[in-house]
Automatic annotation (TrEMBL):
Domain of life, source organism: Bacteria
Record keyword Transcription present: yes
Residue ranges constituting the HTH araC/xylS-type domain according to the UniProt record: 207-305
Protein name, entry field: AraC family transcriptional regulator
Species per Swiss-Prot/TrEMBL record: Cupriavidus malaysiensis
Keyword Transcription set for record: yes
The entry's keywords: DNA-binding, Transcription, Transcription regulation
Length: 308
């Protein structure tokens, strides 16, 4: 769980001068510092010797993701984003997930006992592909969130971490795969490009929508009709069309009407009233307002300038 947001104190606990481990923990404060190394995933157990406050400051590094599972009740830490911090409480089985590619600073109010799981980004991407979810390129950040499945997997690691020389590589790798599969299923996050692509219309659907709109340039085709033809709800279709074109269906159709109007003004002698009707405008007044606002000149003036 998290508590209220509050301003960050200025280096409240002070930086330690003791040697730090790979996760910014002071080595002299750890009663347990155990490690298991698999083919892809690394497991650690970090447990403090006492209940004193401490601070972790860790600069960004291209190392993938870190997951922590609390083995005990009552741990409390304030995680900072710039100068603002949010306090999180960890019950036994609560987890945090964070990217090691981002700066991290946290004040620990008391001691802790965590299983840490370090997952390289290529492992996350490969696991996503094998699960048929190639768009998942990352993990959503959480802190203090209960996760019974991950807690169970973490507890299964404790005996192996206590006697790492007896742990079989196959066991470590299978457990790593189980952890990765669960993390992607619960916290998986699509990459920016994949997420953007998922919001757009499929090329065939976009082409069909444009064809229907253009074919009814002088008519009164509804967005609902086009959405139905694409097998989508009106709201979903409108959002996806905008993501694909940068325009709403109405804006796109209006641009086509104006383009058609320019062609008629330039290449025909039709009166403005007839041009307006042929291009789907309510009347000449409506046509003149829209044309003037968009093109910057009234239709008659524009025709005289182009045809001069």
């Amino acid at each position: 769980m998290h508590i209220d947001t509050s301003p960050s104190p200025a280096n409240s606990n002070g930086a330690t001068s003791c040697p730090l481990d790979a996760f910014g923990c002071a080595g002299d404060k750890l009663a347990d510092d155990q490690e298991l190394v698999g083919s892809d995933v690394r497991f650690h157990r970090k447990r403090t010797a006492g209940e004193g406050a401490s601070q972790v400051v860790m600069p960004a590094a291209p190392r993938g993701f870190l997951v922590g599972v609390s083995l005990r009740e009552g741990h409390r830490r304030r995680i900072f984003d710039g100068r603002r911090g949010r306090t999180h409480e960890f019950a036994a089985g609560s987890v945090y997930v964070r990217s090691l590619g981002e700066d991290y600073k946290a004040d620990f109010d008391n001691g802790f006992d965590f299983i840490l799981i370090e997952l390289p980004r290529p492992f996350i991407e490969r696991t996503g592909t094998e699960l048929g979810q190639a768009s998942l390129h990352g993990l959503r950040a959480v802190a203090g969130e209960p996760d019974p499945v991950l807690a169970h997997l973490a507890r299964a690691l404790v005996p192996a971490l206590q006697q790492p020389s007896h742990a079989q590589r196959l066991f470590i790798d299978q457990l790593g795969l189980a952890v990765g599969t669960h993390l992607l299923g619960r916290y998986g996050e699509a990459g920016a490009a994949a997420a953007a692509a998922a919001r757009r219309l499929a090329p065939r659907c976009l082409a069909k929508a444009k064809e229907m709109l253009a074919a009814n340039i002088a008519g009164d085709l509804s967005v609902a009709d086009v959405a139905d033809a694409c097998g989508l709800s009106r709201s979903h279709f409108t959002r996806a069309f905008h993501a694909s074109t940068g325009q709403t269906p109405h804006q796109w159709l209006m641009a086509q009407r104006l383009e058609h109007a320019c062609a008629l003004l330039r290449d025909s002698r039709l009166p403005l009233a007839q041009v307006a009707v042929a291009c789907g405008f309510a009347d000449q007044s409506h046509f003149t307002r829209v044309f003037s606002r968009t093109v910057g000149a009234a239709p008659g003036n524009w025709r005289r300038q182009v045809c001069a």
